[in-house]
Amino acid sequence: MESKKASKVSWKHIVFCIVLLVIFVLTVGVHINAEGYSDDIGTEQSSDPVPLRTNSYGIVRYIINAEKNEVELAGPKEEVTVEPRLIDSYITTYAAELEFFAKTFGVNYDDVIRDLRNRYDVSDMEFNETNIGFLLNDKNELKTYKSVEYGIVEYFYDYVEKNPKKVNKKRIPYTGDAKYVENLIIYYTTRIYTNVDTTVALSIGAAESGYYKVKYMLKCNNVFGGMSSKGLIKYRNIEYGVLSYIRLLSKNYYGKGLNTVAKIGRVYCPIYDDFGNKIASPHWIKLVNTAIYKYSKYDYNNSISTLQSKK
Hints:
The protein is mainly alpha-helical. It is built from 12 helices and 7 strands. A hairpin with a 2-residue loop joins strand 4 (227-228) and strand 5 (231-232). The model is unreliable at 1-8, 30-68 and 70-74 (pLDDT under 50). The protein has a 3-stranded antiparallel β-sheet, with no helix packed on it. A two-stranded antiparallel sheet has the order 4-5. A two-stranded antiparallel sheet has the order 6-7. The longest helix is centred in the first third of the chain and has 27 residues, at 2-28.
């Protein structure tokens, strides 16, 4: 009899527990949606309501990280693009030219890049890619040059003048062929000092240096016969020597209206006739004109890549 009563009491407890469980579920009313997220977010995790927000991707859902008590963004992350500075874009575009002229002027490329960026940062003037050095005229106005390459060269002349101790003046005698020297003249006259006639510049250099083959001149990196009180001028490398030659023609000859072989020769290689008049040496004119016949047939389509490949 005692065992049966105990059995009846146990079943009553089971029924009672089931009833309590049903009442608890109905009271709390927690539902899990199809995505696996609870429709109700407990207030113990966050005291603030979590909004839904829309953007170009559609609805963005915010989920609470219960362990970190942080709100995380569920959905695609927007990419942040940083607009490059003009000077950085310039350096990337003209890296070959900057590297070439850094070697030409005997200065460190990395030092040059730092200097360019510093000039850009401290200047309050509008950036002009033909004047990367922010060089000013007599009126304190920003200069504008004819080409990017011209501006690069003017910058380097300014840089070495302000930083003479950073210039490597060790001379490297030229031992290469004439074609590279000719390409230097073509590049400098078609890209930088465009007032100089390319054919005439090639021909004068050829007349002075035996078509760029006279060794003692090449050893001095001097192809135009430029002289100083100490004799033939010695340049640090062939690129700088040829640049100095073309710059001389541009500023001291063509820039002053001396734009024919006869006019140039009257200053470049003069003699006096029987009447005491200064004229261009007939022999020199003949040499130059002979070279003109050769170089007038050349292709003057040239670029920095041409110099790099020939070098």
